[in-house]
Amino acid sequence: MLASLLMAPSRRRSGRSARRPRAPRRSGARTTLRVPDDLAEVVARYAEEHRTSTNDALVRLAYDGARRYDYQYTVEELAAERGAAIDRLVDREIPPDAGDLTGEETARAILGFRLGLYDEETYGA
């Protein structure tokens, strides 16, 4: 019997590389969702190009979209703060007969704030 076990062909698959890759384990809430067909095609293409599972591809694409959304939200928030600071400055400092700033003057003012040449407590943002 021992000889027959040693002579038997291996049960292991020789084609392990053909097996679909698995997504890394992640913590968090589990969900089930229906992916629209056009998005499913993009997800499948991404998974194939990056040699990962479709679930992992969907999560990676969601992270990318979330980063872009968060960046856009941050930029809009910063723009609103800076706009409010300019409004406060206009109300206090600029005479009513003064004209609009030129592009160069605006760039110099922004650079001045970035370099710390203006007091943020006085002028805001």
Provide a brief overview of the structure.
With 125 residues, the chain is mainly alpha-helical. The protein has helices at 2-7, 37-49, 54-92, 103-114, 120-123.
**Mean pLDDT across every amino acid position:** 77
State the order of secondary-structure elements, H for helix, E for strand: HHHHH
Q: Tell me roughly what share of residues is in helical segments.
A: 55-70%
The number of helices is 5
Structural class: mainly alpha
Q: Please compute the radius of gyration using only Cα atoms.
A: 29 Å
Basic shape: elongated
Strand count: 0
List segments where confidence is low: pLDDT < 50 over at least 5 consecutive residues.
none
Assembly state here?
Answer: single chain
Number of domains: 1
Strand content: under 5%
Most strands sheet: none
CA-CA gap between termini: 83 Å
Write up this protein.
The chain is mostly helical and 125 residues long. It has one domain. Helix content is 59%, strand content 0%. The protein has 5 helices and no strands. It has helices at residues 2-7, 37-49, 54-92, 103-114, 120-123. Helix 2 (37-49) packs across helix 3 (54-92). The longest helix has 39 residues, at 54-92. It starts with a helix and ends with a helix.
Outline the fold blueprint.
Layout: H1 2-7, H2 37-49, H3 54-92, H4 103-114, H5 120-123
Helix pairs in contact: 2-3
Keywords:
mainly alpha, 125 residues
